[in-house]
Amino acid sequence: MDCLDFLSRRRSVPARLLGEPGPTQEQVQAMLAAAVRVPDHGKLAPWRFLCIRGDARQALGELLATRLLEREPAAAPAQLDKERQRFVHAPLVLAVVACLVPGHKVPEQEQLLSGGALCFALLQAAQALGFGAQWLTGWAAYDPAITARLGLASNERILGFIHIGTPQAEAPERPRPDPMQRLADWTP
Ligand SMILES: Cc1cc2nc3c(=O)[nH]c(=O)nc-3n(C[C@H](O)[C@H](O)[C@H](O)COP(=O)(O)O)c2cc1C
Known about the structure:
This protein is α+β, with helices and mostly antiparallel strands and 188 residues long. 38% of the residues lie in helices and 18% in strands. Belongs to the nitroreductase family.
């Protein structure tokens, strides 16, 4: 498969369809090494990663369930279970954290964009190694109590939880927009 073919066929594999085996430590390193080559205005490298694997996945799910009960005391047991299950499927979840440099001449938007590109590069690197992956956020990515428990500082943001593992079933395709319908010539 040539490169463009690979990119044109890329699709996410829903986290619930991901299972063992996950990437080895060498493969994690290789994926990150590819992903940090994203465009990065000002060479700020305004991002870092958290590896969530093994028992930490269940622990994070418990944290989400506990926090949801705080936020919504009437939350149904099924909702709480959903939170507990959020991170248990894929063997590896990489949280991509934006480390924003406030007041820098490179606007925060560009720092965030670089991190977003990095999330996507991670998806591609995972797929290039034969894994499936999905970029998820969910309410927890924006909840201050959860981000504090993840160790984020006030200038840091969760950009995504990248779930990575071996597809246990074929991922469904979704309709894709026709780019030509969104293309126009700009005329002065
Ligand atoms: C920043 C970001 C956050 C996302 N968060 C979620 C999410 O919380 N839940 C979800 O179902 N999909 C989420 N998605 C969408 C999936 O990552 C993915 O795009 C979708 O499953 C379709 O897969 P595709 O990559 O094949 O288009 C998010 C996408 C982005 C870019």
